[in-house]
Amino acid sequence: MMRHTKPLVTILAVALIATLGGVAQAEMITAEAAEDTYGGMGYPDNINAGSANFTARDHGSWAYKAWIKFDLSGQNADADKSATFRVIHATTQYAPTLRASGLDAGFTSPGGGVLGTDWSDGTLTWNNAPANNKTSGSLLRSEATLIGSKSYTSAPTIGTEVEFVISKLGDYLQSDNTVTIIMTSVGTSYDGRFNFAASENTTYDGPELDFHQVPEPGSICLLLSGVAAIAATCWFRRRRR
Length: 241
Known about the structure:
By secondary structure, the chain is an alpha+beta fold. 20% of the residues lie in helices and 29% in strands.
């Protein structure tokens, strides 16, 4: 009987490793944008819902900024872990710098017609967009924090991804479980702009957010059961020596 114990421990260990792998895979999931649109300084009350692409451009009255929202309701997102925001270039146009900022957690509308975290494609404009500095083609209000920036010296290839790592998702996770990302451009040339695939784009994927999910209780129980089984087997093995 004793010579069968070691193979049994090995089998249990392999099962435990498989369980650990399953839990790890279950933690990371991808969310597609619930809303994505843009607002323009030259047409401050225009609603641009339904566009195949959204634009970020810093050029006086021709400036545009883009807002993207993810709804993580029911996803049990881990606010303490990192996340990755990703968009796809829809054209070769570019500017010297691309920025992605997040609407700070706890954001509430300051009034004056500014929308809250419940904004949508069908309501957002340059004049009412959350955290928008309406007098600047590239700057935002203090309610948004820079996540990261990318520098460009040549045209991007259409269909390529650009991603930004969010060090802690909870910094931008609102009480309604939404996350809003704002994309801006720096560079005053008229042609210096970025166009990214929106959710309505039929050729490329729209914006996505990869984030960690808190493991389900069932997965944790399965993991603990595996640990307990190995521990019990080892204990019996020692008792028989």
